[in-house]
Every structure is written in C-alpha cells, then in structure tokens.
Amino acid sequence: MIRNIVFDMGNVLVRFEPELFLTREGITKPEEREIILRELFRSIEWAQMDMGVLREETAEPRVLSRIPEPLHAAAQNLLYHWSRPEDVLEGMEELVSRLKAAGYGIWLLSNASLAHHIYWPKYSVSRYFDGVMVSADLRLIKPMNEIYERFTEQFHLKPEECVFIDDMPINAAGAVKHGWKGIVFHGDPEELKEKLREIGVEF
Q1: How far apart are CA 198 and CA 203, in angstroms?
Q2: The whole model's pTM is what?
Q3: In which domain, by residue range, is 30 found?
Q4: Which of 6, 40, 43, 133 could cross-link to 107 by cystine, CB 3.0-4.6 Å?
C-alpha cells in the first residue's frame, strides 16, 4: 500500500525552464541565449552545485569567465534568482493539498544546490511537505543508488510504501530499482492523478 508520495521539484512542482528565464531577463538574441544556456545552465558548475561541491558564489567567477562582459549582469541574476514564488506549476499545489488531506506523507527529493534552502520555502506548495532531501546536502544526486537508500533511512519510510514522481525517466527508474513505485511526470496533472489512482492512491 502506498503511504508516501515523493516529488521531484523542477518541472514537477515548479518551473525550471531556462529558456523562459532568459526571456524574463530580456535576452532575445539567439547567440546570446545559447551562450548563457551553455555556460550556465548546462555547465559543469551547475552540476557541481547540485552535487554540493560548489556554491553559487564559487561558481560565479568560473561561469562569468566564459561569458561576454555585457551579459554578466543577466547571468548573475539567473544564477542567483532564477526561481520565483509564482512559478508553481498549474494544478500541482491543488493536487499536493488533496493528497495531504487524504493522509499521505508528502516528501521532496530533488537534485538542487544548497540555495534550495533559501528559495524553496518561498513557494506556497512547500507548506504541505513533511520532509525534504536535497542532493547538495548529501553530495549525492539522482539517480545514484545511495540517494534513494538515504532518503528512506533518514525519514524512516518503507520503500514499498513510496511512489516517486519525477520528470526524468532515469530518476524514476532509480527509485523503482530500490523497491519504490515510480511515475514519470509529463507536465499534465490530470494524467498524474490517473497514474496515482492506478497504483491505489486514493484522494
């Protein structure tokens, strides 16, 4: 029986859309957009922040060294302030609140930097969560085996009572490997509701 619903964050609960973030910054030229996408969001440093090896402050000079000076201000703002409280995905907070009201444990397992502890509480959906595990705190990232083991150990959960919802199939598959149920989220809350009901989640 499923007792715990474990969510990924980016593109499951909140928007993580670098193309959108660039538009907000007023970066419209294709060549400039590609530079910031490549040197910031797709960079080694971004992955190292998720792994807890770097903080934004230590990643910044490395990233900026590869970006033309006129784009520095936009890149810095994106590095530190890409998240916005209003960016909860439509329909997801309502679903989370219903699951919580139905008695399910609500949890977060996310690949994210240490800055997550600053911006996550600003999202209104965060108030429903019983616990949060962030990759940077452990220096482990999904889909590494250890992160799923550490999650259930830390929160004293039984794998067979957990379902993990992630937009990346490999991350959901990692959970399944450890005895959880796994659901790949395709951006449609209604589809997600049906998948949850199919595995016996009632709400």
Answers
A1: 12
A2: 0.95
A3: 18-81
A4: 6
